[in-house]
Specification:
This is Putative 4-hydroxy-4-methyl-2-oxoglutarate aldolase. One of its GO terms (biological process) is methylation. The protein has 208 residues and is of the alpha/beta class. The chain contains six helices and twelve strands. It has one domain: Ribonuclease E inhibitor RraA/RraA-like (Glucose Oxidase, domain 1), CATH 3.50.30.40. The strands form two sheets. Strands 1, 2, 3, 4, 5, 6, 7, 8, 11 and 12 form a ten-stranded mixed β-sheet that branches. A two-stranded antiparallel ribbon has the order 9-10. It is globular, with a radius of gyration of 17 Å.
């Protein structure tokens, strides 16, 4: 029985300068710029305070509670990628913890976004590996498959294709379709500038 199927992991990744532009913006402003349609389920949050991610999606579709696909993804993902896992929203078993986090740091992975659970949250924070997940649990994963790599997935109610840009901060995760990334960056920068000016006006009025 085949336990996995490799699709296209040689996808085109967005320009790093564009990713850096988006990384400077709050996820909320980007969410406004994509008309709130790319915002993942609010239950998917950073597992440690202050975690942020920005990078192209390397997609994994796995059986709930099974991390064989994540191990395979680590062999194929490129530095700067965000490994995005469609894990069926399962909260009963952690898809990764500190050991995978340490491996990912060595490989230059930008972070993980899990529609599933993680563990070792405090240790992941100590080593600085950004992980966003639906839950935290001490229970470990299965490692039997099946899984699919490099194909379209559903993540927290949002479609994700390989190479789409993933932005995560303290508000949650936003998915930006790669072909729309430049327009979204321009729109989100405009939202940020508008909110900055409005905030300054409110503060100035408070002092009068």
């Amino acid at each position: 029985m085949t336990t996995h199927a490799l699709q296209d992991t040689s996808f085109t990744r967005p320009d790093q300068e564009l990713i850096n532009r988006l990384a400077k913006l709050p996820a909320a402003n980007i969410g406004d710029a994509v008309d709130r349609l790319g915002v993942a389920d609010s239950a998917i949050q950073a597992v440690w305070p202050g975690a942020k991610i920005a990078g192209p999606a390397f997609t994994v579709w796995t059986r709930p509670g099974d991390n064989q696909g994540i191990h395979e993804a680590l062999k194929l993902a490129q530095p700067g990628d965000v490994i995005v896992v469609a894990g069926g929203g399962d909260e009963s078993r952690a898809l990764l913890g500190e050991l995978i986090g340490e491996r990912a740091i060595n490989l230059g992975i930008a972070g993980f976004a899990l529609d599933g659970a993680a563990r070792d949250a405090e240790a992941l924070g100590e080593i600085g590996m950004p992980v966003f997940a639906r839950a935290v649990t001490p229970a470990g994963p299965y490692k039997n498959g099946p899984h699919r790599l490099g194909g379209p997935i559903a993540f927290g109610g949002v479609p994700v294709l390989p190479g789409d840009i993933i932005i995560g901060d303290s508000d949650g995760i936003v998915v930006i379709p790669s072909e729309q990334a430049t327009a979204v960056a321009e729109a989100a920068e405009a939202v940020f500038a508008d909110e900055t000016n409005r905030r300054a006006s409110i503060i100035a009025a408070r002092g009068q």
